[in-house]
Each structure stands twice: as structure tokens, then as C-alpha cells.
Amino acid sequence: MNLGNLDSLTFFYPELILLGGILLVVISDISLKGLRDRVNPLLTLAALLLALFYTLQTDHGSAMTLFEGMLALDNFALFFKAFMLVAGVLVLLGSLHSEELAAVHQGEFHALLLAVTLGMLLMANSAHLVMLYLSLELVSLTSYIMVGYLRSDRLSNEASMKYILFGAVSTGAMLYGFSLLYGMTGSLDLFAIRDALLAQEVVGFNQVTLMLVVVLTTAGFGFKTAAVPFHFWCPDVYTGAPTPVTAFLSVAPKAAGFAILVRFFLGGLSQPAGEQWGFISGIDWPLVLIVVSVLTMSLGNIAALTQNNLKRMLAYSSIAHAGYILMGAVLLTGTGLKAMLVYLFVYLFMNLGAFFVVTVIFNSEKTFELQDYNGMFRRSPFLAVAMSIFLLSLIGIPPFAGFLGKLYIFGAVIDQGLYWFAVVGALNAAVAAFYYMRIMKHMILENDDRPPTPLQISPLNRALLVLLLVPNILLIVFWSPIDRWTANSITLFGGL
Amino acid sequence: MSVTDIVFILTAIVTVGSAVVVVVSRSLIYSVFSLLFTFFGVAVLYVFLGADFLAGAQVLIYVGGILVLLLFGVMLTHRLYNLNLTTERFQPIAGTLIAAAVFASISLAAFKTKWKLVGEKELEPTTQQIGEAFLSSYLLPFEIASVLLLVALIGAAMLVRRRTDV
User: Fold this and answer.
1) Pairing with A320, which of A154, A298, A299, B43 sits 20 to 30 Å away (CA)?
2) Which helix (H) or strand (E) covers residue A91, if one does?
3) CB contact, 8 Å: B164 with chain A?
4) Is the CB of B144 less than 8 angstroms away from the CB of A122?
5) Cα angle vertex A264, ends A66, A190, to 5°?
6) Do A70 and B140 touch (CB under 8 A)?
7) Residues of A in contact with B158 (CB under 8 A)
């Protein structure tokens, strides 16, 4: 079913609420001089929660397109929309008591957070190349500003500059890919592109050109998901950005990048075949993405081994995780897609948790260096235990939630008979265990001569840490709702 | 060779040639000025494609707006002369190889692909069609583009904020 512009508005409440939120925050930032620091976070939180409420309420019957085919509304999009909004809420709460952001004026920060969330919601359901590009650019542009938010900090400025330059190049490559695709199919609508490719039988040199399209567009999506070899910006940007922004970038835009990647490749360059998809003959895009996936996880993990700066190490770790998540997308099966969603869901809580501990420690210690974490267990047992749980979860050790993600992903890979791929993944997980354990060793086993002064944690931060710990510990017991939700979320418009 | 062909080839030479100057020129001023010719060349290419509105917008926005802004930026830069514009890491061999490979693959793709062609079309004004598309099937992208501009504005406001104000 295709809805016109006016009818679509009924299904567009979450986005409209966010848009209203942006405007309200900007207005209150100008007009309420004394109250704005208290009103703005509340307004932002209210907008995000209300949008989340409407997203979960959305009952769309069957999958359909909105706004004359610009957006596809399906369970897959709804999963990502809920994901982005939850990530937005958690990052907002995490940014409230952050010393890095406390030093600067925060009015714009909240407006930008809402804008980037709006962009990600649109990314999750774009079904048209113009919309896909615009929403990607909305997310990118907002992220550049958020990364450079600490204006008097040289690292933050440098990070923002690097991010812009890399972003501009990869978006340019992606657009060139889109233009080739348009030239071959005469359409910008993903489903029309698929039909055109199926109708004309990809033969001869068109195969080479389509491979070029796959590589060029992967540059654009790879940039957003920080996949190797489009990851070069990632360590510097993650190190330079304010930590709450880093936490945000490592989870939400990455997930949005995966949403758009799946939408483009499964929606546009594959066709549903029984229980799975088949790529349109002549365009073996899964091969390209398998190579990217193996490179991403291996390089991310190996580079993380030698890092001594926590933010940099977690940046490389997030690159490696992008590799695992990509494993699910290249299988072309419902199980693979579901595994990807489970992994993303679990990754949200464990990665945000780890970054949040780093934020809290920076608040009082003003350092990201690993050796300054020595003796953390004696100074704040709660923080050390929390960090250990997040890290064990990132490794994928039972009984923590990360195990569930790895179980689903590797299970789906083995289902397809790609044993070597699963072995590469498992070897990578073993390498990753080394550097995650290293952080734990510094926090718990190594002590320095300083007297163990207790570390101050504000009550809000403590509550948020507990909130992030709960899913990490309990998901392994209550996994069936997640299983059902993700199994339900793999319905793509024009797909399975 | 018809007159159209000759005009096209001349335009192409001017566009590509001035784009090369933009990249290799040692002085920022030269780069910015030769960018002027690149922008005009692209506008003429749009005319060749029958995109009259786009050609006009190209001149108005790129030449009239962005180029003037760039010139202001250059004029206000402190050390305008004797700037070393090269990067510290200069890898001529790897760079040439990669550039040659990219050039070969995209030019081969341009010539050998079977494109979906619409054939010769009568030249007709496109402004009305674009306007109608913006308010019907392309309404959502049109609106989201304005959100994008709002974000850019917020970013600009953040950049120029006084330090005492932070």
C-alpha cells in the first residue's frame, strides 16, 4: 500500500514530535535565560519519550510506503526507530552529569541530539535514494557539530575537521554510486530499481558497473558504520569528541548505518526467495561485504590490543563489533538478520555502559589513560564491578547479555554452512578478550601508591549505571521477548 | 562535427582544465578563481542536458554565493602567500596507481555500460515541473532539507558564539 502525503502524517507522529522538540528547545534556549538549563533537558527527554511511545504504538497492519514512496514503514524500521530513541534517551541521561559538557553552553546540544535522532529515524525507513542520502547527511552533519562541541579543546576541533573531510569524501563516493545505479535503471526508488534490474538481466559489462556501485555505496555505509577500510576517522574522532557524544556515535549512527545498508542491499539489490533472499544474479554483493566484515573485526581487534587510552581502545573495539554485526547482514537469511538485530540490541547496553563508566571516571579523574585506572576497585567497587560486567558482556562471556548476541550471530553463520567465517569470528572474540581483560586487570588487580580515596558518583549517574547493568545481567534469563520481538522485526517492505 | 559538438568539447576542456588548476595551483587565490570556470562549465553542461533551472541555480548558488564566500574566506586568511598546501605524507607511487585504477574503472563504466536511455527529448522549461514535484511526490525530502539547513544554522551559531558567553 502506498500512502500520499496527507495520509502519511498519521504514521509520522514520532518524527513530528522530534521536530517540534527541536523548535521548542531552540526557542526556550533563547527566551528562558535563567531556567533553560533545567527546562531544555526535560523538553528533550519528553520529546524522546513521547516519540518512543508513539513508535511502539504504531499499528500499521501490513508493510507500506509513506509520502509517495519516500519511506517504507515496516517492522524492521520500527525496531530501529525504537532502538534509536532508547539510545537517545540513554545518551541524554548520560550527558546530564558530564563534566566535559558542563563547561560549555548546552542549549544547542539538546537541539542537535533531537535532530540527529530525527535523522536516524528517517534513515531507518528510507526507501528512496534521495531520502536515503538526505537522512544520512542530516545525521552526518549533526554529528560533525556534536563532535566539535568543545570549542576550546584542540582535540575536539581536530576530530570534527577530520570527520567532515572523511564524511565528504565517502558521501561523494556513495552519491557517484547512486548516479551509476540511476543511469542503469532510470529510477531512484529502491523497489523500482530492484524490479528494473530483475527485468533487464544483468549481463556483460553491466555486472562490472554494478560491482562498482556496490563498492562505492559500501564506502558511504561503511563510513557510517565505521567498517574497515572506511574507519580511519573513527579512533581520532572518538578520542576527540566529548565522551557522551562518543558513546552515542559508537551505537546509534552505527546502527542506523546498518539499517540503511540492509535496506539498500536486501531491498534494492536482492529478491526474496522462499525463506531467504537471493542476490540479483550478476551482483555478488555479499562477497564484498564478507571481505569487509572479516577485515573490520580483525583489524579493529588487533589495533585495540596496543591502545592505552580507554576511549581509543573502545573506538577500535566498536570497529570490531561492526564486523560481527555485519556478519548477520551478509547471510541473506531471516536468521542472519534476526541475529544482527539481537546483537545490536545487546550492543546498545554493553557499549553505552562501558563508555558511561569512562565518563564517570573522567568526571573526577580528568583522564582516559589506562594506568590511571589502577586501584579503581579499592576506590569504587561499584564502578569497577559495573565496568567488569560491561566488558565481560562485550567479550561475550555467559551469563552476560553479550553472549546472547554472539550466540545468535555465530549460530546463524553456521546455519549457512560458512564454518570458516564462524571460526574467524570466534578467533577474533578470543583476541578481543585479551584487551578487555587488560582493562579489568588494571582496575581490579593493579594498585598504585596513592591512598584509595573514594570516587564520587552523582546519584543520577549511579542510577543510570544500574539501569544499564540490568539488561546486561537479566537478558540471558528473559531472552524470549527479545527473541520474539526481533523475529517479528525482520519483515522488510517488499521482502520476507 | 556539428557546432554543438564543438561547443561541448570546448566546455568540457574548460571545466576539466580549470578543475585541474584548482587542485594543482600553489596559490589559494588562483584555485578559487579557476573554480569560477569549473562552476560555469558545469552550468553549461546542465544546459546541454536540458536542465535549464538547474543551470540557473548552479550559477546563482555556486558562483554567486559559495564562490564569493570562499573568496571572503581566502581574503580574510592571514598568511595568504607562501602557504605550503601539501600534506606531510606524500605517496606519489601509491597515489598515482590508485588514481589511475579509479579513473580507468569509472571511465570504462561510463563507456561500456548499457545505460537506460530516454532518447532525444524536446527542450522544454523544467521550472514548473520541479516546483510541482517539490510540492507533491518530493514533499518530504523538500521539508527534511529545511531541517538540515536548520541544523547547519544551529552549528554556525555555535561556532560564532563568544567565548565569554559559553
Assistant:
1) A154
2) helix A75-96
3) no
4) yes
5) 50
6) yes
7) 108, 145, 149, 151
Weakly modelled stretches of chain A, pLDDT under 70:
274, 494-496
User: How many angstroms separate the CA atoms of A221 and A139, rounded?
Assistant: 12
Q: Residue A417's Cα: distance from chain center in Å?
A: 28
Q: Do A134 and B157 touch (CB under 8 A)?
A: no
Angle at alpha carbon of residue A264, lines to A263 and A268, rounded to 5°:
105
Of B144, B152, B154, the CB nearest to A134: B144
A270-273 and A276-279 as β-strands: parallel, antiparallel, unpaired? antiparallel
CB contact under 8 A, B140 and A71: yes
Query: Is any Cβ of chain A less than 8 angstroms from the Cβ of B89?
Result: no
For A155-175, the pLDDT digits (tens) are 898 999 999 999 999 999 999
Q: Which of A160, A251, A263 is nearest to A217 (CA)?
A: A263
Compute the C-alpha angle B148/B151/B156, nearest 5°. Answer: 125
**How far apart are alpha carbons A272 and A266 in whole angstroms?**
8
Under 8 Å between Cβ of A492 and A74: yes
What's the CA gap between A165 and A75, in Å, rounded?
35
pLDDT of residue B82: 62
pTM (2 decimals)? 0.93
Please give the grid coordinates belonging to residue A343: 546483537
d(CA A220, CA A260): 10
Q: How far apart are CA B30 and CA A82, in angstroms?
A: 51
Q: Is A262 exposed, middle or buried (0-12, 13-18, 19+ CB in 10 A)?
A: buried
Whether A141 sits inside 8 A of B151 (CB atoms) is yes
Average pLDDT per consecutive 10 residues, chain B (166 residues; last block may be shorter): 91 95 85 92 92 92 90 78 68 90 91 84 86 92 94 88 58
Element at A66 (helix H, strand E):
strand A64-66
Segment (H or E) for A71: strand A71-73
Which residues between 97 and 126 in chain B have a beta carbon less than 8 angstroms from any beta carbon of chain A? 105-106, 108-109, 112-116, 118
A85 CB burial (10 A radius; 0-12, 13-18, 19+): buried
User: Distance from A107 to chain B by nearest Cα, in Å?
Assistant: 10
Q: Which three cell numbers stand for residue A189?
A: 526508488
Residues of B in contact with A157 (CB under 8 A): none
**Minimal CA separation from A70 to chain B, in Å:** 7
In sequence order, what DSSP letters do the residues of B15-78 get, joined into one string?
A: HHHHHHHHHH-SSHHHHHHHHHHHHHHHHHHHHHTT-HHHHHHIIIIIIIIIIHHHHHHHHT-S
Contacts of A118 in chain B (CB under 8 A): 147
Chains A–B, number of C-beta pairs less than 8 Å apart: 108
Q: What type of residue is B18?
A: S
Residue A454 neighbours by CB under 8 Å, 6+ apart: A379, A380
With beta carbons less than 8 A apart as the criterion, state whether B20 and B103 touch. no
Q: Can you tell me the distance from the alpha carbon of A146 to that of A125, in angstroms, rounded to the nearest whole number?
A: 24
Q: How far is B137 from chain A (nearest CA, A)?
A: 5
Among A258, A232, A284, which residue's Cα sits nearest to residue A83? A258
